[in-house]
Design brief:
Number of domains: 2
CATH superfamily of the largest domain: ATP adenylyltransferase
CATH architecture of the largest domain: 2-Layer Sandwich
Radius of gyration: 19 Å
Number of strands: 18
CATH class of the largest domain: Alpha Beta
CATH topology of the largest domain: HIT family, subunit A
Helix content: 10-25%
Structural class: alpha+beta
């Protein structure tokens, strides 16, 4: 490949030249078949260097009307207060992706996206899949976004999610999707709500009766062998239909296509769900997409007691939207 090459797609990966200040950098090919082992290696190294600063939590399992939840109670948030997401609350919002911390870098996923470790992770091996150049977090998800997410999801089974803007729990304006591996907790279930996600009910009605907030969900065909682009194309088509189903049809905002409201997207190898949002928090408890799988994060035991007293299903209904 010559220095004048631009983009050269390959079946098993890619090579991309990026000109920065006159220097041409060549990314490595996506580590297909070795992605998960690379995540583990980079995470181990980032812990040693201090780049990765996990938030220690104590899980509390509770039920409401027979529906299981896991509430993760933070043990110590002092490290996170030094910087990061808490800066957003003070009106300072640095972009952690331009430039990103090289100690958190996992790999380049595609010509348009790269993968980082989440610096302040609550769940082990929480990954961020960010656009190489700035795109706004409230813009429509594109084929390239779904392709990048599916490229990683094909390597490790888990749940991908997207917080569309601050109301949906996003702390950064630079577009990024997220991926956490299964299981989300210590048990054998992939996520707390998993046994209530009935394929028959999803296919019959496009919704789940036990969820007391507006949402739309659809099953996905079995993943295509060796080609995440096929899965990305399918997911993008369903994504548009689900936005319409919950009343969030896209519109032109300052020459960018955006859904007509905030929402969370959740996606596994088997299904995709959209949840419209009405507000970010229940009192002081911020809720992101993982809340709609039954996994909630609280900063202290006072917040835990408030969620228990109000009822976690009612918390989700309050930050979601009514039918």
């Amino acid at each position: 490949m010559t220095a004048s090459s631009n983009l050269i797609p390959r079946r098993a990966g890619f090579v991309v030249n990026i000109n920065r200040g006159g220097a041409t950098l060549v990314t490595t090919i996506f580590p297909k078949g070795q992605f998960w082992s690379q995540v583990l290696r980079r995470a181990a190294r980032a812990r040693v260097t201090g780049a990765l600063q996990p938030i220690e939590t104590q899980p509390e399992a509770i039920e409401e009307d027979g529906i299981p939840f896991v509430l993760r109670v933070a043990v110590n948030l002092e490290r996170k207060r030094v910087g990061g997401a808490d800066d957003v609350q003070r009106g300072v919002s640095p972009n952690p992706f331009l430039p990103y911390d090289p100690d958190l870098f996992v790999c380049d996923v595609s010509p348009t996206h790269f993968c980082l470790l989440n610096k302040f992770n609550v769940v082990d091996h929480h990954l961020l899949i960010a656009t190489r150049h700035f795109e706004h977090q409230e813009d429509m998800l594109t084929f390239a976004d779904f392709e990048a997410l599916w490229t990683c999801l094909a390597e490790v089974e888990g749940i991908g999610f997207y917080n569309s803007g601050p109301v949906a729990g996003a702390s950064q304006a630079h577009k990024h999707l997220q991926l956490v591996p299964f299981p989300l907790g210590a048990g054998s279930e992939p996520f707390p709500f998993s046994r209530f996600f009935s394929v028959q009910e999803i296919q019959a009605s496009g919704r789940l009766r036990f969820l007391p907030f507006r949402h739309a969900i659809a099953t996905l065909p079995p993943p295509a062998n060796d080609d995440p682009r096929i899965d990305a194309e399918r997911a993008q088509a369903v994504y548009g239909l689900l936005l319409d189903a919950v009343g969030l049809a896209p519109m032109d905002v300052s020459q960018a296509m955006r859904p007509s409201g905030s929402y969370n997207l959740l996606l596994t190898r088997d299904w995709i769900m959209i949840v419209p949002r009405s507000k970010e928090c229940f009192e002081s408890v911020s809720v992101n997409a993982l809340g709609f799988t039954g996994s909630l994060f609280v900063r202290n035991r006072e917040e835990l007691q408030r969620v228990i007293a109000h009822g976690p299903l009612s918390v989700l209904a309050e930050v979601g939207a009514s039918w």
